Amino acid sequence: MKLSQQSLLSIESTIKKAVAKYQIPEGEEPSIVTDVHLQPNPTSGELLIYDDDDNELASTTINEWVSYEADDFEKEAERILTSVLSKVKHSGYFNHLSLMEPYSFTLIDDDKETTTELLLVDSETLIVNDELLKGLDEELDAFLKDLLEK
Predict the structure, then answer these.
(1) Strand 36-40 relative to strand 46-50: parallel, antiparallel, unpaired?
(2) Which of 1, 23, 81, 124 could bridge to 76 as Cys pair (CB 3.0-4.6 Å)?
């Protein structure tokens, strides 16, 4: 699924609008415990964003979603939303929110059940990915072998 630049900007601004009410002045302590839930709808093209109490924080309509007919909508929406969330996070927009870390941006289904964690925001936890773990087994095996031989 390929989205127009306008649709990507609409998703980004909707995410920012959803968390804008959680902005706090620098130096104040986070105090709100919640996650942010994103619900894309392929039928209506809507992207709805909720808090933990199912209060709607923001919404937008993505026209390309309505006309998308392949069976992998959720996978493609997940890829796009993860990419946009990462961009917003790297811009520093989430740095001054009153949300207590760690908090997540999750993808939810029609029943508002979490299907995927799109982004975990936690400044104190190392997020381990496949690239970081590549070759770790071989290194640990070599280290253990070296220890046992001594």
Answers:
(1) antiparallel
(2) 1
